[in-house]
Amino acid sequence: MTCIRPTYFTHIKLGCAPLLLIAMTLMSSVFLSGCSSNEVDETPPVDQEALFAEELQTLVDEKIGTDKLLGASVSIRIDGVEEWSLQGGISSGDTPIAANMRFGIASITKTFVAATVLKLSEEGALSLDDPISLWLTLDTENIDDSITIEQLLGHFTGLHGYFRHPDIWPRVEGDLNTPIPTLELVDYVGTPFFAPGERYEYSNSNYLVLGLIIEAVTGKTVGEVFREKLFGPLQMNSIYFPANENLVGPVATPWRDSNGDGTLQNILAEFGPAYHSIFYTAADVFSTASDLSMWPQHLFNGTLLSEPTKTKMLDFQPIDDTIFTGYGLGIREVTFAGKSHWGHTGGMRGYGSYMFYDPETKVSIAMLNNQSRSQNGPLLRYQLVDELLQAVYQHIEGD
């Protein structure tokens, strides 16, 4: 603190001297007190929000490293507002993961497909009770065309997953630059596990067929419908469907333990037209963490779908799973930090992803990771999301 010394007057009238002396004495006391050792503490107050953000970043950093996650991007929102954006690890070489990087979100794509089908249902363009045969003529005995759209959405069809066919990946890897026509993917659907409606069995083939139905109903590509009904109106400008459109913006490099020896290989060069064509409506959406964390806010906390439609979407059927407790129409139910959450997970070559929403607190989270088939990856992704949400809920309750 700057010390200001008093100024004394030398020309004083005698009659005023006593009063002036008293005044100067008081002034001296005031000014000199500012130079005492008892100065006011001007240390700025602790920024609790900044400290909490550092705490969350530490949780991310602890999951990054050798035999851990290579890179991760996380976005956490409360009631639509992005409160925390967290990144850690690398994309490739010395390039760190950045908030504006797009990742493959894999099966979280199914939430966009389900929302699109439900919107078409609200518009009267189709009915959830429609059988496949009303919209498609499929040249295969392995897809019962009496299966309904609702059964496809909820995985109650018994359809065998087309990614499981032994010939599909050799075809893709044999010509990465040539897309496989979507109708030909149907040929890779194997013998069904059971009759339609019997029970739940997750299968990518269900959402392959839903993509074909969307195109049959609208006369447009799925990418066009996504952009017209979802990406555009909701201003999700970093989300793309590369099966039908160019992927714009920086992309996090995908890595995979292709040989099963614990070593990750850069597989970015493999992501050509063939890859995107087979992932299609089962898994081909790419997004930043920020846009993806906003998606469940629109889906569950907004007006994208009517309340009756959301109720139907969230009618979870119990499933036999070690992590997830139920499946609705394109939506998983899971417990994190003691709370029920709605959303989906995703896993594909080179990427792993989580996107969930808590209806009680209106907290949503998106966690994107750029690796697959690594020994600890799935567990670390789950642990990271659970630990981040636990910290956020404790922080909210502490307020």
Shape-level CATH architecture:
3-Layer(aba) Sandwich
Q: Find the structural class using helix and strand composition.
A: alpha+beta
Distance between the terminal alpha carbons, to the nearest Å?
35 Å
Give the overall silhouette. globular
Give the low-confidence spans: 1-37
Helical stretch count? 12
Mean pLDDT: 91
CATH topology: Beta-lactamase
How helical, in percent, are the residues? 25-40%
CATH superfamily: DD-peptidase/beta-lactamase superfamily
Per CATH, the class reads Alpha Beta
- Tell me the total number of β-strands: 14
Strand content: 15-25%
The main pleated sheet reads as: 9 strands, antiparallel
Query: How many domain modules?
Result: 1
What strand line-up does the widest sheet have? Answer: 3-2-1-13-12-11-10-9-8
Determine Rg (CA atoms, Å).
Answer: 30 Å
Order of helices and strands: HHEEEEHHHHHHEEHEHHEEEEEEEH
Write a structural description.
The structure is a single chain. This protein has one domain (48-398): Beta-lactamase, CATH 3.40.710.10. The chain has helices spanning 17-33, 48-62, 109-122, 149-154, 168-174, 182-185, 204-218, 222-231, 273-283, 289-301, 307-313, 377-398; strands spanning 71-78, 81-92, 95-96, 103-104, 255-256, 265-266, 286-287, 317-318, 324-327, 332-336, 339-348, 351-358, 363-369, 371-372. A hairpin with a 2-residue loop joins strand 11 (339-348) and strand 12. With 399 residues, it is an alpha+beta fold. Helix 2 (48-62) packs antiparallel against helix 12, helix 3 crosses helix 7 (204-218) and helix 3 (109-122) packs across helix 8 (222-231). Strands 3-2-1-13-12-11-10-9-8 form a nine-stranded antiparallel sheet, sandwiched between helices. The radius of gyration is 30 Å and the shape is globular. Helix content is 35%, strand content 17%.
